[in-house]
Amino acid sequence: MSANNALHIAVLAGDGIGPEVMAPALEVLRKIEATTDLKFRFTEAPAGANNYRETGKSMPESTIRLCDEADAILLGACGLPSVRYPDNTEIMPQVELRFHFDLYAGVRPARLIPGVPSPIVGADQRGIDLIVIRESTEGLFASMGKGVVTDTEARETLVITRKTSERLFEFSFRLAERRKARGRPGQLTCVDKANVFKAFAFFREMFDDAAKRHPDVKTDRLYVDACSALLVKRPWDFDVMVMENMFGDILSDMTAGLIGGMGMAPSADIGDRHAVFQPCHGTAPDIMGQGKANPTGMILSAAMMLDWLADKHGLESAAEAGERIERAVDKAYADGIKPMEFGGGNGTADIAKAVLAAL
Ligand code: ATP
Ligand code: MG
């Protein structure tokens, strides 16, 4: 926090629909600023495929420096199918940020907002309110760019370390405890494949050790395959779930599907000191520039940012503001907002207007 107590927010709008969903999220935060004692200082900075095309840099050093100094980082989405690095890999500065700032905990809540259609029968009655915590710096992704391919075979490596796993589990148990304090079950499920791979048995062992230090959190262990079936049959049985990078990548897209679509899902990548908040979705080039993008996930990511800042700096008013944003989003949907994303008639501007009005 700077001298005048303003929270300094690095704003990386990115590519595609990134800037389209960022604008309403910033409007929401400005409204929070106008109606609370919270103060923000927003600094926008370039990152992504468009910037790479223009300057040869997808994540300029100046942007990294800004992110390092800021209290939190808000990110739209980055990367475009038409712009790639010379070796033909995708431009993913969001992944660079994860590794650079060691943001090991990828937090992906999936809460079904009343009034939003879920593909799961019974979900409108039972509700869905779970969080996937995806380890975000190792697992199968530790192999990124290092895989070995010959004419006859290809190999990648799965890495699980004690250092990262222990921090990940501490974070996960703490989150489950905070949820419990807010009236959720406070149950933590470890998702792995410990029956087949030694690396996952190691993962589970460390989970069990952490569980001993947090006896007030109910724990559960599931193999990822069985877990997938349960997630679509009884998603309301889950509270907080923690898993390896690749499993989290896949299951968090699925849980976003359970709550109505990619545009609904917020996320956070959290480390010991830094954190990036961005919607789960990508740049969605198929709908960019048409005013169709659903900004809900981005707005809810801004709410998560306030909650994280509240926890970090002991700012009660930031926690309240985060909850206020969630309630405003709920009210917009209760009042009948239907995003084009799932067949309704409301585009970005309508959704933004409804949330701002509800605030
Ligand atoms: P990434 O590789 O970055 O994850 P992706 O190829 O998985 O990207 P997304 O950009 O996440 O793709 O989008 C998948 C599809 O979901 C898009 O083609 C788009 O139609 C839809 N979509 C994603 N985000 C939104 C949104 N905010 N509003 C409406 N539709 C969206
Ligand atoms: Mg994707």
UniProtKB/TrEMBL annotation:
GO biological process: L-leucine biosynthetic process
Xref: PROSITE patterns: IDH_IMDH (PS00470)
Residue ranges of domain Isopropylmalate dehydrogenase-like in the record: 8-355
Residue ranges that the Swiss-Prot or TrEMBL entry lists as coiled coil: none
Cofactor: Mn(2+); Mg(2+)
SMART domains: Iso_dh
Protein name as catalogued: 3-isopropylmalate dehydrogenase
Organism of derivation: Bradyrhizobium lablabi
